[in-house]
Write a structure and sequence with these properties.
The chain is an alpha/beta fold. Helix content is about 25%, strand content about 10%. A 3-stranded parallel beta sheet has the order 1-2-3, with no helix packed on it.
């Protein structure tokens, strides 16, 4: 999950074919320039704090939520638990298979 603003430096990239930051907690204006003008509004949907083209939300209007609207709960820890559990299980299985294959 991403937080804060979309960095303006991303507009300098010229090799992006697809860009999607939908369903994240990003805020502020969507950077403009180069390939960013070619991305559809679906690429930014689900980001209630984003504003500007190609979205219909105008930056600086009172309809744009502030970051405090989102709260401070981040489900990032929840996702990392599954990654770490998968890594641990894979490591145990891998070592077990390696041990069994090297036994005479």
């Amino acid at each position: 999950m991403l937080l804060r603003e979309i960095p303006q430096q991303l507009t300098l990239l010229t090799f992006l074919e697809v860009f999607s930051v939908s369903r994240n907690h990003l805020t502020g204006p969507i950077p403009q320039g180069r390939q960013f003008g070619t991305f559809p509004s679906d690429s930014f949907n689900g980001g209630p704090g984003l504003c500007g083209t190609p979205l219909s939300r105008v930056c600086g209007s009172s309809l744009t939520p502030t970051p405090s609207t989102f709260g401070h709960a981040c489900p990032c820890d929840f996702e990392w638990k599954f990654v770490l559990m998968g890594f641990g299980i894979g490591l145990v299985i891998g070592v077990s298979i390696g041990y069994c294959l090297t036994m005479p």
